[in-house]
Design a protein that fits this description.
It is a single chain. The protein is of the alpha/beta class and 309 residues long. Helices cover 48% and strands 17% of the residues. α3 crosses α4 and α5 runs parallel beside α6. The structure holds glyceraldehyde-3-phosphate, 1,3-dihydroxyacetonephosphate and zinc ion. Glyceraldehyde-3-phosphate binds next to α3 and β3.
Length: 309
């Protein structure tokens, strides 16, 4: 089984009303935990790498680890650049073996977003690589960029047809009220399903992407708080809202924060219970198992993509 682009994965997801999980990866244990979950659940899989992950772990290390995951798991896997900040980063990922890239021009004026996105699409499509664009802006923290609530904006459905037609993107991320990180809502969680519905109506058979889709699972928030962390008022997207989105036009759901919580919570607990430990294998193997179980939960209970590989 090879690395694949997202075309066939999204076609099937759209048709059958589920979403594929796109999980952020930064090191070997995270990749192994996610891939083992997908193997057990026989699920399609997108592993995504941010610019920050490339800086942290090195592009070559990550792509080789993912190639190892393909070889050992027998799964089709998409390796995707998450939030590509500029053409050069997208080009470097395409040249370096990624099968899919996101160009995030969501902070740019409409015409500039189109111009940049089309430049990436032209380069990517010549090389068999699929491209995700973004319209509308999520709040929250990603890498060095912090988008305040005031600077965030919902996607305007009346712009999506022109954006897709003029850029040629293969999928589109939209903003309907989710945000990055562990603090998504101050009051009651609310998503603009009316926007998703209208976008879906305007773009028939076209895969939509939902970022900022961690549920910020309370079990792990509590674990982190219990063992010396400080995550007061953390709140994520309720699972039933994600299931609803997955049954609509959303074909890709991005999850990072929940993996971080499972990984870090487990390590905090491990050291509280075993202060004498100092072999990284002791705590990393436990963290990897917790992360695997988190991904299995997402695949079965949130995304609905088990047995869809
Ligand atoms: O949307 C951002 C992802 O959670 C990746 O985060 O840029 O800190 O690697 P990062
Ligand atoms: P979360 O912070 O909700 O996990 O979102 C991750 C994401 O959108 C990555 O692009
Ligand atoms: Zn994102």
């Amino acid at each position: 089984m090879p690395l694949v682009n997202s075309t066939e994965m999204f076609k099937k997801a759209y048709k059958e009303g589920y979403a594929v999980g796109a999980f952020n990866v930064n090191n070997m244990e995270i990749i192994q935990g996610i891939v083992e979950a997908a193997q057990i659940e026989n699920a399609p899989l997108i592993l995504q790498v941010s610019a920050g992950a490339r800086r942290y772990a090195n592009h070559t290390y990550l792509i080789k680890l993912i190639e190892a995951a393909v070889e050992t798991s027998g799964l089709d896997i998409v390796v995707h650049l998450d939030h590509g900040p500029d053409f050069e980063t997208c080009k470097s990922c395409i040249d370096g073996g990624f099968t899919s890239v996101m160009i995030d021009g969501s902070h740019l004026p409409f015409e500039e977003n189109i111009k940049l996105t089309k430049q990436v699409v032209d380069y990517a499509h010549d090389r068999g690589v699929t491209v995700e664009g973004e319209l509308g802006r999520l709040a929250g923290v990603e890498d060095d960029i912090k988008v305040s609530q005031e600077d965030s904006s919902y996607t305007r459905p009346e712009e999506v047809e022109e954006f897709v037609a003029r850029t040629g993107v293969d999928s589109l991320a939209i903003a309907i009220g989710t945000s990055h990180g562990a603090f998504k809502f101050t009051g009651e969680p609310k998503l603009r399903f009316d926007i998703l519905e209208e976008v879906g109506r305007r773009l028939p058979n076209f895969p939509i992407v939902l970022h900022g889709a961690s549920s910020v699972v309370p079990e792990y928030v509590d674990m982190i708080n219990e063992f010396g962390g400080k995550l007061d008022n953390a709140k994520g997207v309720p699972e039933e809202m994600l299931r609803k989105a997955a049954s609509m036009a959303v074909c890709k759901i991005n999850i990072d924060s929940d993996l971080r919580l499972a990984f870090t919570g487990t390590i905090r607990k491990h050291f509280a219970e075993h202060p004498e430990h100092f072999d990284p294998r002791q705590y990393l193997s436990e963290a990897r198992t917790a992360l695997r179980d988190m991904v299995r939960h997402k695949i079965v209970n949130v995304l609905g993509c088990n047995n869809k590989a």
